[in-house]
Each structure stands twice: as C-alpha cells, then as structure tokens.
Predict the structure.
Amino acid sequence: MERTPDLGLGDSSLHRYLDGEFWSLKNEMRRALGNSPLFQPRYDLSLDEMRDLTNQRVKFVLSLPLLKHILQEQEEKRRNFISRSLVLGEVLCMVDASTCVKCGIISLLFGGAINNLGSPEHVTKWFWQLKEQKYTGMFAMTEKGHGSNVRGIQTEATFDLDNQEFVIDTPCEDAQKMYIGNAMYGNYAAVFAQLIIEGRSQGPHCFIVPIRDENGNLYPGVTAIDMMHKEGLNGVDNGILIFDKVRIPRENLLDRFGSVAPNGQYHSPIQRKSARFNVMLATLTPSRLAVAFKAMGTMKLGLTIAIRYSHSRRQFGPKGKEEVKIIEHQMQTLRLMSHLATTLALTFTSRHASFVLDEDIFQGRELINRRSLQALMAGLKAYSTWETVSCLQDCRECTGGMGYLMENRISGLKCDTDVFVTFEGDNVVMLQVVARELLAQYNKKHKKNPVLGLIQGWTATAGDKLRTSFPAFNTDMVGHLAFLLKAVNFRERVLQRSLVSRLHYKVVTKKGDFFSAWNSCMHHIISLSLAHIHRVALEQFSLAVRRCPDREDQALLMKFCLLYGTKLVFQERGWYLENNYLTPTASMRIRAQLLDLSESLKDDALKVISAFNIPHTNLHAPIAGVLSSRAAWAFYPAPTPTLGHWIPRPAGARCHQRSPLSSVTQIPSDFEKLGCWVKKKSKHKNQTPSGKRGGEKLHPLQARAKVQQGMISESDLLQLC
Ligand SMILES: Cc1cc2nc3c(=O)[nH]c(=O)nc-3n(C[C@H](O)[C@H](O)[C@H](O)COP(=O)(O)OP(=O)(O)OC[C@H]3O[C@@H](n4cnc5c(N)ncnc54)[C@H](O)[C@@H]3O)c2cc1C
C-alpha cells in the first residue's frame, strides 16, 4: 500500500494563532498538496513540460472539494469567502507559485471579472462552467502601449446594431494585449476595450471573448503569440493577443456598470466615464490583497529554510573551540530576525485587511466608496512585495552557496516572486493610490480651513518634538512599544502635512500644473505612503499581540513586535534626526536595541518558523533538513531538539561531521519505498572503503551520495530487502 508521507504538521497554540481563524482550512489544503506527488518541485523540465505540469497542477487544485466550495462561496458572496480564498492562495504559493498565479488568473481575475462586473445572468451562464472546469479563462487588460495607465487602452469594441454584436478589434500595435496569462491554453478572455457606439467611446468596458475551442484551436480573427521564457513563473504561459474584427454577441458585455440595449442605447448608473472605470477597477482590487498573501507565504518559506540552515551550519569560531553556528554571526541574526518580524507584522495586517474587506462585501458596501480600504490593499501589495524581494535576497545570501541551488528552493522563489512588484499594479503606482487617499482624508478633516489645518498640524508636530527629543526621556523610552508606535505615527503625520503644504504651494500659490507638481513630490509621496503602511502594520501587530490568548506566545510575539517597531524607526533614523525627533543618543540606542533584540530572538525564531506549519514535502530543501534524492549531499539536519545535534568539531578541522541520518525529518517517498537499509560491499576484498572488515549498513541516501561521489560503485550496494 502507498504510504502517505509524514508532513510534520503541528498543532500548538502558536500554530493556530499564526494561521488564524482558518487554520484547519489551511491544514486541509496543506495535506491535499503535501500528499500529492504532483507537487514535487521540478527544475529539470523544458518550457513545454513545465507548462503541462502546471496545467495538471491547476486542474488538480481546482478539482479539490475545498476549492470548489470556495468558488461556490465566491459566487454566492458568502461571509468570509475572501479571507478563506486568500489563505488558500498563501498555502498554494509556498508549494508552487506558477500554479498559484495561474489559479488566480482563472478564478480570481477572469472569474472575478464575471462575478463583479457581470449581471446575475452572466454569473449563471459563465461562472458555473468555470467552476466545473468546462473551460479556462484569462484576463486581458494590459496593452503594449498601456500598462500602468490602463485608462489609455486602445482595443475597440464597436457595437453593430444590425447584427446585435460587438466587433472586437486591435487597431494598432500599441493596442495588442500583452503579457496575458493563460493566453496559450485558455478558452475565453475577459477583454478590456473601449466601448464604441455610433463612433463615440463610453470608456473601457469588459467583454467575454472566445479565444479557442475545446480542442485548442484559435477562433478566426484571434492571434496568440507566445512570449516564451521569463525570469520566473515559467509554468504560466504568457502571450500577446491580437483581435482582427472578432464578433461577439451583445450579451458578452459584462454590463453591471454599463449596458447597451438592443436599440443601441447606452445606459450606466454612473454618468462620468472616468468615475465609471474607477468603479470597475475598484471591484477588482481584492486580487491585490491576494498578491500580498502570496508574497507573505513565500517569505515564510524562504525564512524557514534560511533559519533552519543557519541553526545547523557552522563557520568560524573562537580559536581552539568548536566552530559556531552561522546564526551566531551578528549580520545573520540582524537580517533574518528583522525579516521574520516583518513577516509577522504582514501576517496580522493582511489578515485585518481581508476581514474588513469580507465584512464590506458581506454588508453589500461598494468598494469604490471604501477608499481607505482600497488604499490599504494597494499599500499592502506594494509593501509586502518589496519586503519579499528584499527578504528572499537576504535568505539567499544567508544560505551561502547552498542557497543558490535550485533544490534548496530560495533561488526559484526569488525568480517567481520578483514580478509581484510589477503585476497587479506597479508598486510605485500603487503607493500613489495610498497618498491620494491620505491627502483626501486630510482635506476632509480640514475642509473648512486648510490653512488652519496646516497651522494645527505644525503645532501638534512641535509638541511631539518637544516631548520626544528630550534626551533623558528618549533614552529611557525607546524600548517601549508606545514610543515606537508614537514615532511611526509622528512620521506619517509630518509627511502628510508637509506634502499638503508643498502641493498647495506649487499648485495654488505658484499656479503650476498638477501633474508636474505631483511628479516633483514623488519621493515624498512614496515616503508618506510607506510611512502610512508601516504605522498600520505596527498597530495591527501590537493589537494582535494584545489579543493573543496564550501568555507564552504573547510574550514571544511581543518581542518580535518590538523588533519590528525598532526596525521601522532605525531604517528612518536619518529622517528622525533631521526632524529632531531623535537625539543622536536615542538614535544610537535604537541601533543597539535592534541588534540586541535580533540576537535575543534567534532561538525563539525556531518556534515561530515551526508554527508557520509548512509541510516537509513543500519545504523540500535539503539544507532545511529534508532529504532529497536529487541532492543527498546537500542535506543538513533540522535544528529541532528532538532531531539530533551536530557532533562537536574543533575549529579548523577539515571534515564536517553531520548528525546521524536518523535525525532526518522527512524521507522522500521514493526512498521510503526502499524501506530498508543498504549493505555496502568493498571494492577491495573483505574490506569496506572505511577500512573496516565486513559489510556496513548505510542509509539509502548515504549510499547514493557515495556512489555519486565515486567512493563506491553501484554494484557494491546490496539491498537487504
Ligand atoms: C509575468 C507577468 C504576468 C502578467 N499577467 C497579466 C495578465 O494576466 N493580464 C494583464 O492584463 N496584464 C498582465 N501583466 C501586465 C502587468 O499588469 C503590467 O506589466 C503592469 O501593470 C505594469 O505595466 P507595464 O509593464 O506597462 O509597466 P509601465 O507602466 O511601463 O511601468 C514602467 C516603470 O514606469 C514607472 N511608472 C509608470 N507610471 C508611473 C507613474 N504614474 N508614476 C511613477 N512612475 C510610473 C513604474 O513605476 C515602472 O518603474 C503581467 C505582467 C507580467 C510581467
């Protein structure tokens, strides 16, 4: 009978708290993927093979009963369906980012367009078949000439009154749909195009356009060009779509926000074209939050691998003594612990955002009217993906040459997640959404008298400075969470007020055009938006610490929360010094605090990464203590108390001695099938290579490694059973 691998899933209070309300759903998903051989990482496939495998994986995932259930909930807009689908995306992204992205394109983007932009009839007609995998879809918004500026798209959908059809056309090269995921396999596309009636555009609208039949043949008038290899996500087939007067029925316009009657009359509940498109885009923003969840998942995976290895590998040490574990090196702890603290902050902040979003959708509130939530999602997308890029780079460096090996996963994660900063909205563009909202909030608050608002802002700021730049107070308090919360609050408020003042001067006083004024403040704008997200993240983290029901877990999380706050202030210490918020002494104390906290948390980190609950089969990396048949020589035992220890070795000794293989956390299934030890015979008569007489029992992996290294030949191996 086929044995299911031990996934090593845990169930402590911390496991549950970090996974949140939907921990059992996440475990169900972990088991489904962790037990499937389909999800063994592969790095040796051609582009076509990689895409085929991804298609099989997508099919498998979308057939899972729990996924079907979620899609059903999405259709019925049941309470918490967003949070539930986002946590599944997080788990899936750790297993394979290509599969996760492709599932997202089909269900969240294409399916989301139908659900959010279509009528109930559209949902009935298209969504059920999508759920049942009768066909797959793609989302075609970006064009060669317009990526971030989607408002400028040029694809046309001209209404033909006589035939009751829309004619979808690509009028020029710039209008070609670009980078469309699933373009080489998908059957239908949600195409954004200018709706033209009697020569007049009503702005961009979304249409369902058939691309290819069930046998994979393109429909007449449709051209799909394969974009081939990318830096990562090569399981996803991205392509260019060109339409040559493709005819679709009038009913294929997703018409919730704008419809065309049979007599050609256009109707929309929203009069202004730009406002109408804003509403359409707003309904699609939950997919930005999905990117934040995916990014967070990969940070958890990268950190788990890097921290486990750092607790296992040794380099350098005091003269004449055992070499130290690399986690003992200050830069190692500084880099890994601060990323771990950020990952925890993102965990609680994105969870908060998803709950707010769920509640709004459940209450039937339109997202367009929830600008602060839209800003939070856009900001979280940008912040989490930039943090992911930086975190995975540090994980790669912290695992040295071993981290460069595909088998150890971090390099692959880096390639796959790099584009997270670009798709679903470029990060710099996303952060401008945040800044616009913060300015709107400021104006609303000081509606009656913006000048008085500025004065009040200055007075509040001055008061802050007086309170916090007093040296004795500062040095005493920098270790308190209250100080850190106040500091990030102060930074956001000062940046907000000073941006209002600068824009006011440039546009109102100097009568400059808004675009130039805005552009000349871009660095300020991005700083403000990140300051806002930092403040929200630290507040959400501290709230989560307060709510944690287990005392021990609470104390542990509190230390990481302090580290996160300290990191935020430390990284902007120049700004705080410029603004006299910190004295040089306080700034030095912040640095010392950052180093002390990082150092003190390195062992606690093992508990946290274990509570991320990543199945061994998905962790996969030999340097993280998971045996791999493809790279047995890369194995380092996992640093948990029950799982063996390093054999002490004096500094300068030539050979590393690893702990016995009985400490292995997970043996890959193909080795488990061997189910026995291997007897090794010597090439030399009656002698083992180690010089001892007689045979020697070796673990299959050890044996295979020795064969690979040429120390013994294949024929020396004897299988005992
Ligand atoms: C792997 C991948 C998959 C994709 N999948 C899809 C898909 O399935 N469907 C789809 O429709 N699209 C898809 N896209 C397209 C993606 O959404 C766009 O690439 C993205 O929106 C950015 O647009 P762009 O590439 O044209 O970059 P640009 O908009 O040209 O941006 C380039 C640079 O200019 C800067 N910039 C642009 N505007 C501003 C501004 N206002 N202020 C300041 N700086 C600015 C940006 O910050 C960036 O640094 C995908 C892209 C990739 C790479």
